[in-house]
TrEMBL record:
This is Uncharacterized protein. It comes from the Bacteria. The lineage of its organism: Bacteria, Thermotogati, Deinococcota, Deinococci, Deinococcales. It comes from Deinococcus lacus.
Length: 90
C-alpha cells in the first residue's frame, strides 16, 4: 500500500489466544500493490527495509508492509503472484 490512504483501517484482533493485526483497505479508494523484485536489480526484496527505501526513492512511501504469501527457496513466491500487469505462477 502506498500513498495516503483514505480508507485504511488497521486494528488488533485476538482469536483463540493468538494476536493478529488486521488491515482493511477499500480498493475503490486506495491502491494496493505487491512488490517482489527490485525493478533496477531484478533481485527479490529480502527485507521490508529494502522495499521501504525503494518506495521512498520513488516518492511513494508505504503506509504498511506485510509478507503477502509463501515463498520457495530462492525467495520465489509459490502459487499465483500478480504485480502490476505481470502474472507469475510457480
Amino acid at each position: 500500500m502506498t500513498g495516503t490512504a483514505r480508507a485504511l483501517d488497521i486494528r488488533q484482533v485476538q482469536h483463540a489466544g493468538d494476536h493478529y493485526v488486521v488491515a482493511n483497505v477499500n480498493l475503490k479508494n486506495d491502491l494496493l500493490r505487491l512488490h517482489w523484485t527490485n525493478p533496477t536489480t531484478r533481485q527479490p526484496y529480502l527485507t521490508f527495509t529494502q522495499l521501504q527505501e525503494r518506495l521512498r526513492k520513488e516518492g511513494t512511501p508505504a503506509l504498511f508492509i506485510t509478507n503477502s504469501g509463501i515463498y520457495a527457496p530462492g525467495f520465489r513466491p509459490l502459487g499465483l503472484h500478480v504485480e502490476g500487469e505481470n502474472c507469475w505462477c510457480h
